[in-house]
Structure formats: C-alpha cells, structure tokens
Amino acid sequence: MVRNEGTGLRRALVCRPGREYVSLDDPQRHNFLDLPDLALAQAQHDALTRTLREHRVAITSLPELPGHPNSVFTRDPILVTGEGYVHLRMGLSTRRGEEAWLARHLEDEGFPCVGRIEPPGTVEGGDVILAGRVAFVGHSGRTNEEGIRQLRRILSHLGVHDVRVAPVPDRYLHIGGAMSMVAPDRVVACSGRFPRDFFSGFDVIWVARTRATGANVICLAPNRVIAEAAETSLIQTLEDHRVTVIPLDLSEFVKGGGGPTCLIQPLQNA
Fold first, then answer.
1. Edge-to-edge, what's the strand order for the sheet holding 186-190?
2. How far is CA 158 from the centre of its chain?
C-alpha cells in the first residue's frame, strides 16, 4: 500500500506500449503532442522497467486496454492509498474505461476499494501526491472542484486530514508535472507555481519552470530518483542538493503528455 511516495518504491504496475499507443485517429483528442515511434517507445519503457527492477521494485505489467492509447499512463485511473485503492473518474473523456480496467486487476490482487469518485466529479491520479499525513492535490483541467470535494472526504476517512489544494497552471497537465516527492519530508517543485505555505513542514528544492515535466520524478528511495533525461536543469539542481538522479530518455512518452511518474502506478512503498 502507499502512504508516502517519498519513502521509496517497492512494487508498481505498468503497461508496456504496443499497437494501441500509436493507433491515434486524432492525436489532439487523446492529448498527444506528436505521434510516437513505437519501437523507440518500447525500448524506452523496457529501460524504465529494467531500472526499476535493478532497484528491487517488483513490476506487474498489463497489456494495453483496446481503444485506449493512454492506457500506458497507469498513474491516472486509480489512486492506491495506505488502506486500499480509490476508483477515480478521468477528466479526459477518451480515457474513461481505464478506471474499471485497472480496478479489476487490483481487486484480483486483493486490494480493497476504499472510495469512488462519482459524476460530475473528476480526479486523475497525476493530480494526487501522498505524503504521509498530507495529500497534495492539483485543481486542473482533469481534476475538478467536485472531484476534490469527494476525494477530500475519502482521504479524511483514511486518516489523511491535511489535503492541500493548488491550481495547476496551463503549462502542466497535472500537479505531478510541477512537483514530486524525493524523500518523506522533501519535495522538488517548480518555483512560482504554488500558494504560500503550500509546502509548510517540508524541505523544498526549487527548480526553474521549464517543460511540462519540469519536476516529475520517480522516487526510488529517499534522495534517489528517476528523471527524464532532457530535464537537464532539474537534474543539475537535484544533484546540487545531494539527490542521486538516474536520467532516462522517455521522449516518446513526453509526446503523449507524460513524464516518469505517469508510467507507473505505485502499489507499495518502501
């Protein structure tokens, strides 16, 4: 189960890209910036899963959901908490159906459902970052006020009473593009993007605002992360703050609007 993403990662769920990832009738409708190269995307995804396994992360890989090119981005349809999973409701209509697909798998694995986002609420997993007693939530084009209201109630019942909400700027699809956990009480975040006191109680590594994946990293262990190789400013800043960074080329997923964390659904923390 997942309580604080900054403690590290022990188990994750992924979906290797295949035919669906490049079967785009209308890339813009699916939020793709460009058509990915399938062979390169598969090689990059394989490098990611290999790196995770090298760091003792157990990987479960699911086949793509037919008709859903975004199903490789397993972070978004559900939220795994310390008590079970929350069945979310996607804000992008072309992704609806992915929630039930992942939920079925989790139930087969014995994960209980502890809540559900109901219409007209929407919440996507990239807009929720768990940090122990705190949950950071992004109010974005994918996660609306009603969804946040429902999520706040669900998390409160699970003992997470400090739900901090911030608007997500247009440049970022989710809050996860602008911040990530790098240790249990340490955050990397894009400067000038968050309300005053949003990170109260946390050590913050501020990075310059760059691309939509400017602060998107996978925390493997405290102060050890995976980052998109093209985010050179992010990598340098993290290393200057004694964070070990493993850079990986994930360019074919940036074309789909995703960064490293978008490609994994955390199932268990360290």
1. 179-183, 186-190, 203-207
2. 20
Give the class (CATH, top level) of 5-170+250-269.
alpha beta
The neighbouring-strand residues paired with 181 are 187
3-class DSSP assignment, residue 126: helix
Instruction: Return the exposure string of 162-185: e unless at least 16 CB atoms fall within 10 Å of the residue's CB, then b.
Output: ebbbbebbeebbbbbbbbbbbbbe
CB 259 within 8 A of CB 213: yes
**Residue type for position 234:** L
Residue 235, C-beta contacts closer than 8 angstroms, at least 6 positions apart:
227, 229, 245, 247
CB hemisphere CA count around 17 (13 angstroms): 27
Q: CA 144, 75, 90, 28: dihedral to nearest 10 degrees?
A: 100
Cα angle: 17, vertex 18, 23; to 5 degrees: 110
Q: Give pTM, 2 decimals.
A: 0.97
What tens-digit pLDDT sequence spans the chain (270 residues)?
999 999 999 999 999 999 999 998 888 889 898 999 999 999 999 999 999 999 999 999 999 999 999 999 999 999 999 999 999 999 999 999 999 999 999 999 999 999 999 999 999 999 999 999 999 999 999 999 999 999 999 999 999 999 999 999 778 899 999 999 999 999 999 998 899 899 999 999 999 877 767 899 999 999 999 999 999 999 999 999 999 999 999 999 999 999 999 999 999 998
